[in-house]
Amino acid sequence: MIHEWPSSGRRLVPPTLDGETVFQLYRDDFEHTRGAGRIPLHPNFASAAAAHYADAPDPATRPLISFVPDAPVGTVSRLLKDPDPQMRRRIAKHPALPVELILECCEDPDLATAVLWNPSLPAEVMHKVLDEVGVPRCPEG
Fold first, then answer.
1. d(Cα 27, Cα 42) in Å, to the nearest integer?
2. Which of 85, 118, 120, 126 has the most beta carbons within 10 angstroms of its beta carbon?
3. Is the separation of the CB atoms in 118 and 102 below 8 Å?
């Protein structure tokens, strides 16, 4: 059973709901509120979501892939070439992006800042960036 908060219209979705239904509820919410819902936090959201929206023609829908941390590497890599620059910046932050593509993003002026948010960014690259902008290193020890 799905409940709505009377004051906000947000749904309380039981944790046992299957991923396909959770995805459909989110899509319904997204279409009416342009993404204001909280269903992507549901534990079963990712299980069904990636296949549905990675190739969506609506550029406002494709960014939902960022809610799927274990999205297929091929899908994430392909979306790095999306025609929408905002989508490419989102994908540059995605943890499933392979290191070789992360390093390529570092060289792209449109993606260099976004990729710094990627949790898979190699530490030596982050140190190099911080050194270049003058952030002092912590003393070792």
1. 13
2. 118
3. yes
What is each CA distance from 110 to 54, 64, 67, 86, 121, in whole angstroms?
21, 20, 22, 9, 17
Whole-model pTM?
0.69
Distance between CA 97 and CA 120 in Å, rounded? 8
DSSP reduced 3-state for 87:
helix
Kindly list the domain boundaries of the chain, sorted by start residue: 1-53, 76-141
* Of the candidates 135, 134, 97, the residue with the CA atom closest to the CA atom of residue 115: 97
Question: Which residues of the chain have a pLDDT value below 50?
Answer: 1-8, 34-36
Instruction: Output the pLDDT for position 101.
Output: 96
Residue 11: per-residue pLDDT: 58
